[in-house]
Amino acid sequence: MLSKEEYNKTVWQLEHISREITGRYRKNFRSTLKRKIHEHDLSSTYPPFEPLPYIPYFVNRTTPEQTLHQLIEAATTTIEFTLDTESVNIYRTANKPVLIQLQILLPHNLSLVNVIEMCHLPPENHIRFKLLKQLFQIVFSEEKQVYIWGSTAELLSFITFKLFSYEQIDGINLINLQDQFKTYWNQQHIHKSNEENDICICESCLGKQPSETWSLQDSVALELHEYLSKVLTNQSFDIGLDPNLHHMSSSEKNHRQRLTTYALHDCLSMHKIIINMKNKNFQFSFEITKKIPYDLMESISSSDDEIMFSQLTPSIERLENDQTLNINEQEQLTSTSTCGNPNWKITSTNDKQLTSQ
Q1: CATH architecture of the domain with residue range 51-302
Q2: Any idea where the domains of the chain sit in the sequence?
Q3: Which DSSP letter does residue 335 get?
Q4: CA dist., res. 356 & res. 348, Å (int)
Q5: What is the rounded CA–CA span in Å between residue 67 and residue 57?
Q6: Beta bridge partners of residue 83, listed in sequence order
Q7: Which segments carry the region annotation Disordered (predicted)?
């Protein structure tokens, strides 16, 4: 959350952008300022997002084979999954795909959430790699349902890791939760006339256009009345989040803990939204996957508007030193270790059990 002085300064910057900043640079700088203000408004209005009980796992080259077997067994016995990805923005080139977050939905609103670190996978000929391929084969099979906030296009850049193929992506039983939520919201919130004396939260009164998609953050705010932080959107998720990958100092562990929380919360917030929609008898529908040539796709997890101004425009940053953004991270969620239950801890890749500790 910004201080009053920081908030007022950001508003002033937005209203007084230098004329020397033009074109795409101006658009992205303006988007960054607006996003910073929006982040502050949400964080000061709603309590932090609280997930349902879950057990997290790091999946990488250090993950024991027994753990992968247990995850495969869990994926085999359930039907529903949520999936999200993270990429690293690289200046003047395609984004670098680095994380896949896969949530296995279990009975009683429990789930297993896997942070699959693509830059730290085992060798392709290793049994762990083959087990991970088997896990994706199960998840992407025709009898499973995969919820994604968007389309399967964001998975295409991950094909290079050889854990799954284009044909497997094309065959996913996809539920585009972003599109489905828009339909759900319009069904639940029909426009109210002024005579009813109720605050109308239909899309039109919220200022959303008919063709405009919903961000996950806004959906969490308006549907769950919680704040889903997006301050860490443009961080380096490829550095190795699992403390078992290499030795880390206390500050390095804390930083990775925040990144892990961020990655986990995208799937966990989708899960809560799905439950709300089901409780209101919303009928989900599958999306027919449109075949998109892989060579036409760029790595996506972040849109152009999510690319930080400092990454895109170092020269403009020098011109507008007073308008450089310093996002305050003090209000970030710092507790993935409790996982919604004080008896649960982040599961080390050396742990042998899937059960709560």
Answers
A1: 2-Layer Sandwich (3.30)
A2: 1-45+304-336, 51-302
A3: -
A4: 12
A5: 9
A6: 102, 148
A7: 333-357
